[in-house]
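During the second half of the funding period, the structural biology subgroup turned its attention to how the target accommodates small molecules. The most pressing case was fructose -6-phosphate, which had performed well in the primary screen but for which no bound structure existed. We therefore specified the complex as follows and requested a full 3D prediction, including the ligand pose.
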Amino acid sequence: MCGIVGYIGDGDTVNILLESLRKLEYRGYDSAGMAIIDDKGKARIFKNEGEISELEAIVPEISSHVGIGHTRWATHGRPTTQNAHPHCSGNICVVHNGIIENYQELKSELISEGFVFISDTDTEVLAHLINKYYSDDLGLAVGTALGHVRGSYAIGVLSNEHPDELIAARKDSPLIIGLGKDENFIASDIPAILKYTNRIIYIDNLELISVKQGSVRVFDMEGNPVEKEEHIIEWDLEAAEKAGYPHFMLKEIHEQTRSIHETMTGRLHELEGDVNFGELGLDRNEIRQFQRIEIIACGTSYNAGLLGKYLFEGLAGIHTDVDTGSEFRYSSPVLAPSTLVIAITQSGETADTLAAVREAASYGCRTLAITNVVGSTISRDASHTIYTRAGPEIGVAATKSFTSQLVMLYLLAIHFARARSMMDADRARMLLSELRKIPGHVSRILEDAGTIHECASMFVKAKDYFFIGRNINYPVALEGALKLKEISYIHAEGYAAGELKHGPLALISKDVPVVAIAPQGHTYDKILSNIKEVTARDASVIAIVDCDDYCEIEKFADFVIPIPKTDEMLTPLLSSVVIQLLAYYTALELKCSIDKPRNLAKSVTVE
Ligand code: F6R
């Protein structure tokens, strides 16, 4: 996904921009570029297809006090040097995240006025438009140009006629300002500039900012000044680096002992048999009045949402539907103010989820965001927000953010069940105390990761995989398939085990490993039958089971991965760690690019 950085000050501008761009690499990109004003007042543009190291190789040592940089993830036009940002027109250079929806009509207009386009991007329209409206005030020209565009943007703009100023603006795409001592920064993401400052201003929609070396002034689009609050970011940079693991993904899988604990911290109220949810902003009465829950999410967060359905229905007795953001936003949803809409999004920036939430809000529904990123767009759009506190997740494949989302859904479902008198205090106490033990159980799975590595190596030649589960294990099966395909590029399907016989059984053969998520529970006998169905077709079975069932299941499975004993309802928290490790070690054996899988981005801020 695209990333923006900008710097103004007495530091080494080129290196600060390169270093900040490197911190955005985790978002995924295909080209990078920068524009700086050199000390002779000349704008110098460098851009390159490929990695930031390739950009670094073409940037000479230049003394400069102001610059903007960009990592591009192609949306309009191929990932070429020509299409890389910045895009320039006259003296104006622009970096842009987002999509200008009416760029075609603006482009035709600009061409008829004599502007010459050299790229296929929507961004180039912005550069020409700003140039068109420029007389002597850069901020005014940017504001006027933005008045003509439809779509989403976070932009950084500079001109060699204003070497002491950077202009930035945002609508529906994240943007922050970093405050330094005699220097200031712009960025699309906090880690980009955390090395230099932890003093941050979050920019809201339709705000325009003039950033100078000694001042930051924020305006609305009518030019009125806006007061902004400064936030201190407590993450240290260390937390966003690999800490000795070969990949962020493995580090983040291991961090789950801590992240799961963090999600629960201060929220478990075992004495009362309830959850402390002050930040939720919904009292028991309000919770009782909801007649339905609609969960909206994408990808891994959607799989978490599916588990949420089983929890809200099974524990709190409240009808729950789950939809992907991209489907929901173009459906004809039947929503009423008595529907609670829960949006689950790790990044808080997923365009489809954000659009779906806005759609839901237009029906008068309360919207509750479950997100990992404080200050993210969803946290400002939703009427209520709770944070998963999993810490920054750099690997593109979601791991710790997923288990923290699951924990959050357990806590919410227990809280709702208590408020609606669907669960007595004893059952709640029991579940909460079992939840407290989960980080310890995860540690034990991690200690035995070698067994999962062995399993991954055994089946590494497979071209297709199936993951099956029933009831609360079905979302884990979907997540297992998603994890495997995204990082190892092996084709994998997640199925409700009872559905195999309705079609996919035709694909089962000796070359297709089937991962059965089969801990003890009320569907255990059923999945045993499903395991027998696939072994009868010569498939190899990898069974994820309770440690007590090891001996029994060994008779049917080719590989058994035990998980520690916990309450049936909570087993997805443990089996999820197993499927993450299985995907990780498979991708490792296949020498895949684990942290940055091909074609994928960490934060999907376009539709
Ligand atoms: C898969 C993965 C994606 C995200 C999806 C939604 O490992 O990370 O499927 O889950 O793009 O992202 P968020 O949760 O940020 O809305």
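Two results from this model are relevant to the next phase. The CA atoms of residues 245 and 251 lie 6 Å apart. The chain has a mean pLDDT of 93.
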